[in-house]
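Input sequence (200 aa), recorded before submission:
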Amino acid sequence: MTSTKKPSSNIRQGFKTGEHIVYPSHGVGRIMAIEDQEVAGFKLELFVIHFEKDKMTLRVPVPKIASVGMRKLSEPTVMKKALETLKGRARVKRTMWSRRAQEYEAKINSGDLVAISEVVRDLYRSEAQPEQSYSERQLYEAALDRMARELAAVDNLTETEAIKLIEQNLLKGPRRTGKGEAEADATEADDEADTEEAAA
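Predicted structure, token format:
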């Protein structure tokens, strides 16, 4: 198996070397090179994508880009919509936590920035609200991380600055005060999550 880098013509399917992209299952990465590789007599063109935070490099065949859902960074209008989404009211379905967790995970791995911002909004807890269960916290942090990394790349911020901006938008939303139905809803989510963890 031989591999050679192609310094010339560094654009494929609208993507070029050096630019940041979003790979749905891993988040924001950078295209480091476009390589030619020969496998069993067939020539294959590969994007070499590096994910700085995960210290990981992927080689993705150029023809597979569409099927894996790789995309360019979000346009400012999409980023604005995602930040606006954070200010909305949290929507918590009254279904088993395991089902909701699957839905949240699917949204995170969809690569859709607005869907990811919905997960951040729905799982966010202010200091006045009940604690998150371990599994809720894991999903919240995964969604927050994905959103912050893309926001940082789009607006040329550090990841810390991006997280602060996300949290500022979350605080502008109609926070649940911990009374009545909202409190019952949050507690029920915690109880379900704890029960499922205990059973695991």
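Checked by second reader. Residues 64 and 158 are 31 Å apart (CA to CA).
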